[in-house]
Amino acid sequence: INPLYGMIRQLHSDAKAQSTTQGPKAILLYSASKADELLFEPELTDMAKEFPNNFHMVYHVTKDDEKGLEEDSSATYRRGRITSGEIGEALQWAASSIGDGKAMIPISSVYICGPTGFADEM
User: Fold this and answer.
1) Residue 42 CB: number of other CB atoms within 10 A?
2) For residue 78, what pLDDT is reported?
3) Cα–Cα 20 to 30 A to 81, which of 11, 29, 59, 115?
4) 117-121: long-range contacts (C-beta < 8 A, 24 or more apart)?
5) By percentage, how much of the chain surpasses pLDDT 70?
6) CB 43 within 8 A of CB 74
7) Where are the alpha helices (DSSP H) in the chain?
8) What pTM was estimated for this model as a whole?
């Protein structure tokens, strides 16, 4: 998560400096076994709240049944593993225009991090 967190912080910093919501879009699908293992969760959610048209968070917890996951307007919490279908949904969101939502913008980068089996499946 550390390299991706650094990249997202830079995008957030750039958006703040330009005072714009027209910058690049990013969505992070972030998975951990337990909710308390989601490093940087408050910071990532705060960035998503500040620039909801540019950044969205989807948290996944695969094994923790004890802690309830609260829905938030700028972050989504799900149980279970990230699926290829969710990656497709994320790409659609990232490619949609900020304006009317009808035009598509090009996606310049996609990063997948995880165990070999996960990365190969995606």
Assistant:
1) 8
2) 87
3) 11
4) 118/81, 118/82, 121/84
5) 77
6) no
7) 2-18, 41-50, 84-95, 116-121
8) 0.79
Q: Are residues 32 and 62 in contact, defined by beta-carbon separation less than 8 angstroms? A: yes
User: Is the separation of the CB atoms in 95 and 87 below 8 Å?
Assistant: no
3-state secondary structure of 35: helix
Distance (Å, rounded) from C-alpha 62 to C-alpha 82?
Answer: 9
Beta carbons of 38 and 77 less than 8 angstroms apart: no
Q: Which of 92, 120, 118 is nearest to 107 (CA)?
A: 92
Q: How far apart are the first and last CA of the chain?
A: 18
Q: Which amino acid is at 100?
A: D
φ, ψ at 11 (rounded to 5°): -60, -45
* Two tokens, residue 33: 């076994």
Q: In this predicted model, what pLDDT tens digit does every residue of 53-92 receive, in sequence order? A: 788 899 988 886 655 556 555 678 888 889 889 888 888 8
Is 34 within 8 Å of 69 (Cβ atoms)?
no
